[in-house]
Amino acid sequence: MFVPSLTTALIFVGMVRAVLIIDLGLMLSFTYVAQYLTKPILEVLQKIFGFIMLAFGIQLVLQALAKLGILTATGFSSQADSSPSACTTGRKSALR
């Protein structure tokens, strides 16, 4: 079963519909905006969104490595203890 209850399924379908309506509205309004976008503006936007996608990709890889236990990181997991004492305790035990 994909979802545990009918309520969850209806919420999911509603969210998908909302996203589709927003996308449709943006695509329809883009026809009016497109006439003002020149090639240099599009190139700048391409670079900006490229860097944003790169940052999300790196974050995804680091989170996957932390979840697999290959990479030790305290900022990626909700269960990680990010207190300074946890970091110093590990360092002191490594030095002994």
Low-confidence stretches: 78-96
Q: What gross morphology would you assign?
A: flat
Distance between the termini: 52 Å
Instruction: Write down the domain tally.
Output: 2
Q: Strand-and-helix sequence, N→C?
A: HHH
* Helix-strand category: mainly alpha
What share of residues are in beta strands?
under 5%
Note the main sheet: none
Summarize the structure in words.
By secondary structure, this protein is mainly α. The protein has two domains: 1-36; 38-76, no CATH class. It has helices at residues 6-33, 39-68, 84-95. The longest helix is centred in the middle third of the chain and has 30 residues, at 39-68. The model is unreliable at 78-96 (pLDDT under 50).
Features:
flat; mainly alpha; 2 domains; 96 residues
Summarize the structure.
The chain is an all-alpha fold.
List the helices and strands and how they pair.
Blueprint: H1 6-33, H2 39-68, H3 84-95
